[in-house]
Amino acid sequence: MSINELERPDRFVRQSGLVPSEQLSRVACTVIGVGAIGRQVALQLAAIGAPQIQLVDFDVVDPTNVTTQGYLANDVGQAKVVATAAAIKGLDAGIQVIPIPDRYRAKLQIGEAVFCCV
After folding, report:
1. Inter-CA distances, 1 with 5, 13, 93, 113, Å
2. Can you give the chain as a three-state secondary structure string?
């Protein structure tokens, strides 16, 4: 163990009694709709350590989404799933993010935990 690892606090220590990391490490999550609610759900899943997050949304970031949905000015014009994927990678580069810039369709293979935020 390096000195940096000893000095760096475990970011999951406060949630360890609520969210068992060994169970969470096996869960693939799907967030359908990454507007105001779905974007925050996806970011919180990343923050608690979800290892795989699939994002499904057909929409593009509009200037009004900056004030209402937590997107950044640089995100305008990007697919919402791409902008949200970048934000997730900013929190934890080790998370596998699968952006799907399309509407949800029943044929889509989804994760064990699904959050419908439309």
Report:
1. 6, 18, 21, 34
2. CCHHHHHCCCCCHHHCCCCCHHHHCCCEEEEECCCHHHHHHHHHHHHHCCCEEEEECCCECCHHHHHHCCCCHHHCCCEHHHHHHHHHHHHCCCCEEEEECCCCCCCCCCCCEEEECC
Question: CA–CA distance from 104 to each of 69, 71, 79 (Å)?
Answer: 20, 21, 15
Q: What is the pTM of this model?
A: 0.85
Q: What is the pLDDT of residues 40-76, one digit of tens each?
A: 999 999 998 899 999 999 999 999 999 999 999 999 9
Calpha distance 109→4 (Å, rounded)? 40
Report residue 113 as tokens: 């935990």
Please state, in angstroms and as integers, the Cα–Cα distance from residue 107 to each residue in 64, 79, 104, 110, 118, following that order: 32, 21, 9, 9, 18
Asked if residues 83 and 75 have their Cβ atoms less than 8 Å apart, the reply is yes
